[in-house]
Amino acid sequence: MSDDATEIDLDDLERRMDGALTSLRHEFASLRTGRASASMLEPVHVDAYGQQTPINQLGTVNVPEPRMVTLNVWDKAMVGKVEKAIRESGLGINPVVDGTIIRLPIPELNEERRRELSKVAAQYAESARVAIRNVRRDGMDQLKKAKAAGMSEDDNKMWADEVQALTDKHIGLIDKALETKQQEIMQV
């Protein structure tokens, strides 16, 4: 092994790749699969008090039954804005307002909508793959600099193989997560 000046930080590369995977899982959680989930409202933001506010900071989100999400809005003045944000979010949910409680009945997904959601999941996965490849490129750039600074050919090859193995592992995890999510979406 060479000294620390010519080694690359694999832990940093792995941490960044793990971050891309975590981000993908978070995006997958927001995709509607026909079952009610509190996380499906996470991408919805409301123009509240002069700024974009996540919906879960304006009320309590509950899932009382498999096809129903309820949102108990804390500020009565915000009910209309929250309802409007949900309608315009593209989730395909029609909110029903009852005082400060907003009920969100989750309709059964039709085949066309399932295919659409499957494509959206594939786009999320491709974005994650691009992020992983960008981290790989950064690692390879570090290797080029280290080689110019005097890293041996053998060490350079060994580190390049390590970076590629890390990349392959994370791409495989993304593919597996996508396959699982698509099966979940297509399940009737």
Automatic annotation (TrEMBL):
The keyword Protein biosynthesis applies. The gene is frr. HAMAP family: RRF. It is found in: Cytoplasm. Pfam families: RRF (PF01765). The keyword Cytoplasm applies. Responsible for the release of ribosomes from messenger RNA at the termination of protein biosynthesis. May increase the efficiency of translation by recycling ribosomes from one round of translation to another. Residues 24-186 form the Ribosome recycling factor domain. PANTHER family: MITOCHONDRIAL RIBOSOME RECYCLING FACTOR PSEUDO 1, RIBOSOME RECYCLING FACTOR. GO terms for biological process: cytoplasmic translational termination. One of its GO terms (cellular component) is cytosol. It comes from the Bacteria. Belongs to the RRF family. Keywords: Cytoplasm, Protein biosynthesis. It comes from Allgaiera indica. This is Ribosome-recycling factor. One of its GO terms (molecular function) is ribosomal large subunit binding. NCBIfam families: frr.
